# Entry
Amino acid sequence: MPWTAGAIGTPAGLPGGIAHAEVDPAWQPWLDLLEISLEEPGDAWRAALRVRADRAAGAPLLDGALVNIDGQRAGALVQRLAQAAGLVTDGCDAPAMIRAALARDEETLLGMADDSDVPIDAFAVVAHAAAIPLLHTAATLLDANAATAWQRSYCPVCGARPSLAEARGIERDRRLRCGACSADWPLAMLHCAFCDELDHKKLGSLSVDGEGQLRYIETCESCRGYLKAVKTFDALTFRSLMLLDLSTIPLDLIAHERGYARPARPGWAPHVELAAWPERGTMP
# Structure
């Protein structure tokens, strides 16, 4: 059954018709993978992650992190994801795959895909889906004060670029949302989410017929970047964020037609390593 608001539960904070948005059926395979990943209990993955307090200035939470991934659990998750995607990944090192996805280590993912004789695009989709439980867990570890103080163009948790902006609540506070881990952080309205342009004359928006101020596109003439934006009552849940990102693909098409684009690379690719430590021990 295609994902709709009803299929995944009412998306909290979505006003009006947005709550009833439907996703193109072509995206159903990805949503099936997402649902498999979100079924994983967070507590089972929380113990697998250790983050460092002495990160470099501007580094996201995952930079320098150590992960001690349960090979059996990771292998079972990757197997379920691969089966759902119609792939065979027998013999694949699941913890190494997840680490590479967390670090956006394209070279390692390419080598693993070649070893498994699986197309890299399909392999990468499964790898990134397998990393969702750890990414979602990492987002819960971000200190609220650190998130509030973060004023950068990439996620304070995983370094990804924001997937959209929320104009949240009655005051329409602007919050950038990460589509990889669901973290959110504030950024002033007249501030480009990608190149830090502050000149209001170079910042604009594209409206969509029939949407009013519910959905629109933020644009920057300096970097020719764009970011989708939506008015919300409350913070979107992770599922709702994914649903909204996919159901607003027409906004992406409009932006592309006008010559705008999103950055191709993440803001910061975190350095992540596999490690082992006693179950009740501290980070080595």
Observations:
- The mean pLDDT is 86.
- The first strand starts at residue 49 and ends at 50.
